[in-house]
Design brief:
Length: 119
C-alpha cells in the first residue's frame, strides 16, 4: 500500500529531494489527462541487441493539457484510475513547458540573453 509522504524534522537532503519529486508527481497526477509509456530509446544498445531506454526507470509519462505539458514519473508511480492513453507529447522542450505555465498565470521571468540568444 502507498503512503502519503510529508516533511518531517531531521530529513536528510536525499529524503527532502525525494519528497519534492513526490509532491511534483502528485500535483501532475491531479491535473493529468492520462498517462503513457515513453517508448523512445537512447541510441545505445545492450549487449543482447535491445535498445536502452532513454529514461530508465522513468518511462511513465503524465500528460496534461492534451500533451502540451508532460512529466516523467517513476515507472512504479501509482497513477490510480488515471487512464492510459496514446503518446501525445507535442514536441515541447522543458523550457517551453515552463514558459506555457508562466504565460498562463502571467508570471514573468527575465532571461539572460547571453544564454538565451534565440529570444
Amino acid at each position: 500500500m502507498n503512503r502519503i509522504k510529508t516533511w518531517r524534522e531531521g530529513m536528510s537532503d536525499g529524503e527532502a529531494k525525494d519528497l519534492a519529486y513526490w509532491e511534483r508527481n502528485m500535483l501532475a497526477l491531479r491535473y493529468a489527462d492520462g498517462w503513457y509509456f515513453d517508448d523512445i530509446e537512447d541510441n545505445t544498445y545492450l549487449a543482447d541487441g535491445y535498445p536502452v531506454a532513454r529514461y530508465e526507470g522513468w518511462r511513465r509519462v503524465l500528460s496534461l493539457d492534451g500533451g502540451k505539458m508532460t512529466f516523467h514519473v517513476p515507472d512504479d508511480f501509482d497513477v490510480g484510475n488515471l487512464p492510459q492513453i496514446s503518446r501525445n507529447w507535442d514536441g515541447h522542450t522543458t523550457e517551453e513547458k515552463w514558459r506555457r505555465i508562466c504565460q498562463f498565470r502571467e508570471v514573468r521571468f527575465a532571461y539572460d540573453e547571453t544564454v538565451h540568444s534565440d529570444r
